[in-house]
Every structure is written in C-alpha cells, then in structure tokens.
Amino acid sequence: MKIKGVTTKPITLLKYCLAAPELAKISEETGTMICNTATSSKKHHQLNTSDETRHDNNVEKLKKELND
Question: In this predicted structure, what is the pLDDT of residue 9?
C-alpha cells in the first residue's frame, strides 16, 4: 500500500493515524481467514531473550543519563 501526501495536511495525517490500527486488524483477520496466521511465524517486533536484555539495559542507561 503506497500512501502519498499524508504528512502534507494535518487532517489527513490524523485520519490515517486513526484508521491505521483498524486496517491492521482487518489485515490480520483476513490472514486468519485464509489460514495464514501470524502466530505461526515470529513477528518482527518480538525479540529473543538476548535482544530483550540488551534493550532493557539500553533503556536503563538512557533513564540514568536523563535523570543526571
């Protein structure tokens, strides 16, 4: 899906931001209906244990720097 000109008009950006989660839900439901479930493969935002640990450490470092 190619989206053009969304950021040029604030009202268009707002409409897209409000519609995007609903579009994602529809897409997931369609995949489920055709037996292409997202649970069978790891989603891009799911991290393994070492990635989670590194992310948590980086967040803690950032919090520490911001609080100093």
Answer: 81
